[in-house]
Amino acid sequence: MASEATPLLPRHQTTGNQKIHNVLVQMLTLVWFLCLPLRSVVNLVLGTFNFFVWRPFVWVFVRTPFAGLLARFVERNTWVVILFFALPASYIFDMFFSIRNWYVRSFLAAPKLHDQRVREVQAQVKRWNEQGRKSPMCTARPGWLTMSTRSATFKEDCSRISVNLHDIIEVDTERQVVKVEPLVDMGQITAHLVPMGWSLAIMVEMEDLTVGGLLMGVGLEVNSHIYGLMFETVERFEVVLGDGSLVTCSRTENSDLFHALPMSHGTLGFLVSAELKIIPCKPYMHLTYEPCHTLDEMADKVTKYCESDNPPPFLEVTVYSKETSVIMLGEFADVTTAEQRAKINHVNRWYAPWFYKHVEKFLTTGQADEYIPLRQYFHRHTRSIFWKLEELIPFGNHPLYRYLLGWLGAPKIAFLKLFTHTPEVRRKVAESAVYQDIIVPISTIRESVILFDEVFDFYPLLFYPVKLFYKSPGTEGLIRNPRHVKEGTNPPWEMYFDLGVYGIPGNVRRGEPWDAAYANRAMEKFARDNAGFQLMYADTWQTRPEFEEMFDHTLYRKCREKYNAVGAFPEFWDKVKPQDQR
Ligand SMILES: NC(=O)C1=CN([C@@H]2O[C@H](COP(=O)(O)OP(=O)(O)OC[C@H]3O[C@@H](n4cnc5c(N)ncnc54)[C@H](OP(=O)(O)O)[C@@H]3O)[C@@H](O)[C@H]2O)C=CC1
Ligand SMILES: C=C(/C=C/[C@@H](C)[C@H]1CC[C@H]2C3=CC=C4C[C@@H](O)CC[C@]4(C)[C@H]3CC[C@]12C)C(C)C
């Protein structure tokens, strides 16, 4: 049944808003025709710019001996490129998309458009079949637009299918689900749901992450110690298969496909919608900061919190050195009293210090609590790209910068990649910086932090606890079952955690040799040996047999055969295997 907030329209019914939309479209069409001569002038200018400036620039940038020089310039003056290109481009892009999303939300009925757009995806896949299934398919989303540190060069050899589905289709507060298209991003969802008093059960922090990417890869957040990985909160997927047919799958319908899809990275079909669990929320996050001064103290406290019968609803740790860290415990809250109002902190306002810098100070000032407006809490790491921005714009957290330019926000990762990832830079990133997350059992906290300290020597480290549910035989997907489930739990689970490292390792910073292959492989082996896994937005340094030891391909391969994916989509490994590491 549809909710009161956004009713699902009967097919082909026209609302008042749609009528306004139709009138607007007619008016715009008239203006468009009247402006035809102007259009020719604009086209001429853009065409000339493209031919004489942009194309030669790209050619010089990528294919000539100057590529090295330019790459060095970009590398040494990254902040110049970011400040003058990536930041303004990100600002304009975000503005355009919020206007576009507001317009679609206000004037167009998404359900009707959804059906039509799904048919367009199906038509492309059917055409690909009719034309002789030449090369395997992938989404047409360019590599630079995604969150991956990889450059997705495999796409050059694929038939690219445009899965241009950006909208929230329906919020059903009775069934407590939201139906969304795969390119809906986290920023869009919080803007839509939070004012209605709802949140995704797993509401991921970076605004640009997409539902499709998080479900076909891995999504998690600081309440994953309760709900598990994001795909555990999915009720139903709608997928276009390799033959162009449309199937839905859930725990009861085509359940093999339902369990095989998470982590499959678009190699079983094209996701065209997902129904995700939503939970009621309150306007603030009440956050308590608990500083820890030894690794043992942090490990003991976190394990106790996560495994208790009444765990804190949100739990995050930021690790500032081998021994020091801050645990953050959160719960939804209203702010009603003067005392509570005095503790409100707008952590995402343009002049506020970066969130992790703010948190670090509790190591010296001691335990404290505050109330953070919910949407700002959800996206607390966007403004500083966790702690990466400090390396890119070293003065980005200076009060002068924040007050003068903070309103520009963070550069979008897409534009960072577009403007700074020459092939040279990309190779250097893989060899002299580390962007990795592993998910391993909570019993290994001490060993994991010590290992990361030895091989990366970079802080802060990200720490999110994650509950990994045991899957019954036949439903175990690419992510393997935990080995030691907790006694007496139904469904059975083991507590894991995500440990993330994003930055330039100590040795590289000090100008000492650092062996990227050794360090990354040591981390990957540690994950494999402990029934854990690596997040595949990152470069993997594993061999194929090691990769298949990490991810269980049994159900995945059965589904590739059964659902016409063989030959239609590349294999998981072919999308993520190392491409440009030496
Ligand atoms: N807190 C968290 O959980 C965080 C997670 N991440 C990582 O970021 C990744 C998501 O980044 P994002 O840029 O949104 O996603 P991407 O565009 O990088 O997509 C990730 C994978 O999902 C596939 N995919 C995406 N949409 C579809 C679709 N409609 N149908 C079929 N396959 C699809 C892509 O296929 P194709 O290659 O064909 O395009 C790709 O292989 C996650 O996988 C996660 O690991 C990053 C930061 C935080
Ligand atoms: C998985 C988690 C968080 C991950 C993020 C911190 C990383 C996801 C994608 C990463 C990046 C992508 C591309 C980049 C371009 C490079 O030139 C610089 C680095 C980076 C910005 C890089 C930085 C880290 C990520 C944002 C957790 C939350 C589970």
Automatic annotation (TrEMBL):
The processes (GO biological process) annotated in the record are: steroid metabolic process
Query: So where does this one cross the membrane?
Result: 20-39, 51-71, 78-99
Q: Which InterPro entries match?
A: Diminuto-like, FAD-bd_PCMH, FAD-bd_PCMH-like_sf, FAD-bd_PCMH_sub2, Oxid_FAD_bind_N
Residue stretches making up the FAD-binding PCMH-type domain: 105-281
| Bilayer disposition of the protein | Single-pass membrane protein
Task: State whether keyword Membrane applies.
Answer: yes
Enzyme group, top EC level? Answer: oxidoreductase
Give the highest taxon in the source lineage: Eukaryota
The record's listing under PROSITE patterns reads: FAD_PCMH
State which Enzyme Commission number(s) the record gives. 1.3.1.72
Main location per the UniProt record: membrane
GO molecular-function terms, A-Z: Delta24(24-1) sterol reductase activity; Delta24-sterol reductase activity; FAD binding
User: Cellular component terms, GO, for this chain's entry?
Assistant: cytoplasm; membrane
Establish whether keyword NADP is in the entry.
Answer: no
- Localization annotation: Membrane
What keywords does the record list, in alphabetical order? Membrane, Transmembrane, Transmembrane helix
Name the PANTHER family for this protein.
24-DEHYDROCHOLESTEROL REDUCTASE (PTHR10801), FAD-BINDING PCMH-TYPE DOMAIN-CONTAINING PROTEIN (PTHR10801:SF2)
Q: What is the protein name stated in its UniProt record?
A: Delta(24)-sterol reductase
Tell me what organism the protein belongs to.
Answer: Tieghemiomyces parasiticus
